[in-house]
Amino acid sequence: MFDFMGMMGKVKEAQAKIKEAQARLVHLSAEGEAGAGMVKVLVNGERKVLKIELDETLLNPNDKEMLSDLVVAATNQALLAIDQKIKEEMKKATEGMIPTIPGMDLGGFFG
């Protein structure tokens, strides 16, 4: 027989754990770099850019387009890295709470 009340308790427990994990995301960070480390971008788990570091040799007005491209590349790399960390954090928070169904990937459900 299906235990509806037990299932509702599990759902509430999962919601609480997810909320706790989301609160911890602000403390996660990831860095992306481009141009062999000449441009570095740091983002947090809220997907906000915290810091951009530029090598002084890139501060040439003639290289403005290249600098822009490197900043974009480093930012995208940092965002990919933080997305992976967010996914891992949410997976830890819900481990054992959501049943594993063969052939069904719920990994994208949380991030």
TrEMBL record:
GO molecular function annotations of the record: DNA binding
Record-linked SUPFAM superfamilies: YbaB-like
Cleaved signal peptide residues: none
Any Pfam family matching the protein: YbaB_DNA_bd
Domain of life: Bacteria
InterPro entries listed in its UniProt record: YbaB-like_sf, YbaB/EbfC
Family per record: Belongs to the YbaB/EbfC family.
Assembly with partners or alone: Homodimer.
Function: Binds to DNA and alters its conformation. May be involved in regulation of gene expression, nucleoid organization and DNA protection.
Name of this chain's protein: Nucleoid-associated protein AO498_06475
